[in-house]
Amino acid sequence: MTDSEKIISLKNARSKTKETKNKEVKEVKEENKSNEPVYCSFCGRPNTQVAKMVQGPGVNICSECTMIAVQYLILEDKLPTGEAQRILDIFWSKINK
Fold first, then answer.
1. How remote is the C-alpha of 7 from its chain's centroid?
2. Per DSSP, what are the bridge partners of residue 8?
3. For position 2, what pLDDT does the model report?
4. Reduced to 3 states, what is the DSSP secondary structure of residue 43?
5. What is the pLDDT of residues 18-27, one digit of tens each?
6. Which of these, 34, 65, 33, 25, lies nearest to 49 by C-alpha position?
7. How many other β-carbons are positioned within 10 Å of the β-carbon of residue 86?
């Protein structure tokens, strides 16, 4: 997977049809082939140093920051389900390899 394929754009995702979304995803992939890094708005790492990057309107978040946020939200309740904990364990074990 190339660095540009690791970037997913969700800009204006709610107001678009499926066909329009697919066209925009293709356009974003073409834009990202310029090899300019995209940086996570939370941790500051470029897409070249993370597993995936999600772009929103004026903000980007990497997969690691996303999982930290998810983990926080799950653990805030102090009762993560077995399934939620299994997903978190799998994700962190793959990232730490």
1. 7
2. 54
3. 72
4. coil
5. 665 555 555 5
6. 65
7. 11
Write down the pTM of the prediction.
0.56
Measured CA to CA, the distance from residue 91 to residue 65 in angstroms comes to: 12
From the CB of residue 94, how many other CB atoms can be counted at a distance below 10 Å?
Answer: 9
Residue 62 identity (one-letter amino acid): C
Buried b (16+ CB within 10 A) or exposed e, 4-34: bebbbbbeeeeeeeeeebeebeeebeeebee
Domain segments of the chain: what residues? 3-95
Closest C-alpha among 23, 52, 29, 32 to residue 40: 52
Asked whether the predicted pLDDT for residue 60 surpasses 90, the reply is: yes
Q: Answer yes or no: is pLDDT of 37 > 80.
A: yes
H-run or E-run covering 94: helix 82-95
Q: How confident is the model at residue 85 (pLDDT cuts 50, 70, 90)?
A: confident
Q: What pLDDT score does 75 carry?
A: 74
